[in-house]
Design brief:
The relative contact order is 0.06. About 65% of the residues lie in helices and about 0% in strands. The protein is elongated, with a radius of gyration of 23 Å. By secondary structure, the chain is mainly alpha-helical. The protein is built from six helices and no strands.
Length: about 90
């Protein structure tokens, strides 16, 4: 089905479709591999976006270690022991 559409796009006189068809043909191996193996970079993109938000939140921090600590707390699953508690909060919930 995709091959039929790509053939049509190659003959089409609409420049946007012609360009899209070329781009798809150029990357067809990667597209097919991603579909067959159920691969996606969505998790990586999501994590990157979250870290960018944390970076904006950390603006004005004195040291880069503070941003790293914030990222570990938010994204890394790091759960430090809190004062007055014997187990981390996540261990109690599970």
């Amino acid at each position: 089905m995709l091959d039929g559409w790509l053939d049509w796009a190659q003959r089409c006189r609409i420049p946007a479709f012609v360009d899209l068809g070329r781009k798809i043909r150029k990357n067809i191996a990667g597209i097919e591999a991603a579909m067959l193996n159920d691969l996606s970079n969505a998790l990586i993109e999501s994590t990157n976006t979250k870290i960018r938000v944390l970076h904006r939140m950390a603006f004005g921090f004195a040291k880069p270690e503070h941003l790293i600590a914030l990222a570990l707390l938010d994204r890394g699953g790091y759960c430090p022991e809190l004062p007055g508690r014997s187990t981390p909060a996540l261990a109690v919930l599970s």
